[in-house]
């Protein structure tokens, strides 16, 4: 009788698990399942907007991501990645740079600076589905930024106004976060970490020797036996807890994702030495970054945007490039620009960018302008406007800078991206990569997977076999010349890989 009951219970349990799997995919896909995505996008995100002020919701979202509770990249979002054949088999990989500063991006969708200012949640952000993550802006010294309230939702407009003012924990603290991330997940900074570990290990050995000698001289034999028994019991308990944690992790998560890591650098509000501030950031954080960004376009630091004028910009970029060559020669150096530049100012910036040989541009930061179409009660708040209201302006800036530089300087496009169509428009305007941030406030974290899927489908529908081929397609005169260059570069890379394979055989 008991055996029959057990068998019946087992069958019912198995049937229950099967029903849950068929309807939600939670058992097999966990945080990657569409059910989990819908929970966050349709319930958690709107509830967070209702219960918390913008900055409080931001901190909560960052903590959720840091702890690994946020959705992971969905199966549908894995288009063009590895063996995924969704999106008609479009290759979403993007290669930027040449020589030692060549970067291979798993895909064109990344996270803009501002969400994770200090680099405390990098691994969780990659898990969301970002192919590259940019932290910062990081200032040399810690600074609190502007007094609150300093962030405002324009819900009716799907926009955000912020005046954070480069709130940062400073390069020393951020360096510790980056070192911890690289130590766990690998990548840049390995030599620096190894040297620090060797020093820490030697110091720990000396301290351990002194401690054990003192304990042997002071501890009676009976107490030493009890301490040993307690230590054994604690080790057994810790091992059991670790085994349970490992089993739970294996059941609910996939292997952690990684990607390209960028570090966005800023200057301290009271500093009068811009070059010195950016040099400190490059020196202290460059060894851990895959690329670096000089932010001269935040509207919330007095005098910062004046650095975009021709002569100050030439001096700044020339100086920071020298610092990069000295302290982080592997890292491409980008400059982040404002969307409020006039055509003449953009022409000056383009001339300086090509003259100095900067590796790329990020177009664009938040705007001081207020479109007439805004209807939110917060539209007159002081600060930088981001989100949907600046989408068209940022795309037009991308198009202009691509044309002015004749497609010769890679562009990372950012501003109001909330769908695959938005990302596609920025690629065809001239961006090689696209970043998102503010639209997650309204669309939820699952928007990353949706954008990836929608973009791959759009590229396939328009006849593109790889994301790189869509870059600058709106400007045919520049487009075909650059496309031929990219094709030749890909063929050369494949020949090199084939030669390496032949040698290995």
The pLDDT mean sits at: 87
Describe the largest sheet. Answer: 8 strands, parallel, barrel
- Alpha plus pi helix count: 16
SSE topology string: HHHHEEEHEEEHHHEHEHEHEEHEHEHHH
Q: Please report the total strand number as a whole number.
A: 13
- Which class do the helix and strand fractions yield? alpha/beta
* Shape summary: globular
Poorly predicted parts: none
Order of the strands making up the biggest sheet: 3-4-7-8-9-10-12-13
Kindly provide the radius of gyration, computed on alpha-carbon positions and rounded to a whole number of angstroms.
26 Å
Quaternary state reads single chain
Strand content: 5-15%
Report the helical percentage: 40-55%
**Head-to-tail CA distance between termini:** 64 Å
What is this structure's SSE topology?
Blueprint: H1 2-24, H2 26-29, H3 34-51, H4 54-66, E1 94-96, E2 103-105, E3 109-111, H5 122-128, E4 132-138, E5 151-154, E6 159-162, H6 170-185, H7 190-218, H8 221-252, E7 260-265, H9 274-285, E8 291-295, H10 310-327, E9 333-337, H11 343-356, E10 360-363, E11 384-387, H12 391-404, E12 411-414, H13 420-429, E13 433-436, H14 440-443, H15 447-461, H16 476-504
Parallel strand pairs: 3-4, 3-13, 4-7, 7-8, 8-9, 9-10, 10-12, 12-13
Antiparallel strand pairs: 1-2, 5-6, 6-11
Helix pairs in contact: 6-9, 9-10, 10-11, 12-13, 13-15
